[in-house]
Predict the structure.
Amino acid sequence: MRRAILFSLITIIWLAFLSIGECQCRYVEELVPYIPSPQSVHLKLHESDGTSYVNVSIRFSDGGFGVSDWGETRRDGNEIWVNSEIWEWTGPSIQIMITVSNTYNLGRLEGGDYTFTFMCWNYQVKTLDFTVAAVDVPTIDLDNNGFIDIVDLAIAARACGSRHGSMNWNPIADVNEDGIVNVEDLTQISFHFGETW
Ligand SMILES: [Ca+2]
Ligand SMILES: [Ca+2]
């Protein structure tokens, strides 16, 4: 009888111990990997001086989230992607909506259709399809030798300020075909300086 009571007591203590353990696990405070919903992620493309950028902004419901790594841009053909690492703090956090953002420089893309994919922990979160207008490089290779260099700039400089009928008018120097050779044409040539195709 005494042995049965002792056994029962040990069992009760052991179950109580397990119960406390489970309780502690349930309320453990730690950082865990988190994948945002597509609805909370906004992708926006913008171009500047021929370079394409994608801005990614993520809206979090409270202050318990953080991005430890936005990831590097990767490219395979016309597919571009980034793989980020985002965490959630399971403990208490500031109850305020937070938006974080990062801008990825995609470089100078050739004309064509592209897809940008924002990934998190190797999971595809959201994609953005966009088109880059083709740049007609040969039109700024004024001497048509296969690369843009100081000679092309010199040809445009000699015609600078001229219009149709001017003594120094040179139609090939009017890169943007607006009827005048000026700093805009020189700027376009300078922008592609050093390029070959
Ligand atoms: Ca040239
Ligand atoms: Ca022009």
Residues 32-132 form one domain.
